[in-house]
Amino acid sequence: EYYFGGKCAVIAVPYSLLLKTGAEECDLDALPSMTRQIQGVDVGVVIKERNEGEFKISLRTGKSPDASAICSEFGGGGHIRAAGFTVKGEAEDILNRIVEEIKKQD
Question: What average pLDDT does range 71-83 have in this prediction?
Fold first, then answer.
């Protein structure tokens, strides 16, 4: 999905897809960087469901905003251009909270 006129790309990988395909979380390691390779995308977000109701979020940013600042709002951290966190909850609620925080930081 795209937000903010295509400046933010979000890829969500549900746990059911991992089970169905036999893929492991490590098979998805390249996804966060790939989001930033999409033309016009400044913020890439990958939401990986680790198991039912637990999500690992990875952010990659270009010139702005600060990925670490966004992730710190959820108890995570990292670097200015690459950061992440783990959270429990409902996928849609988590996505909405992330998008709102990106909007605040940008």
Answer: 96
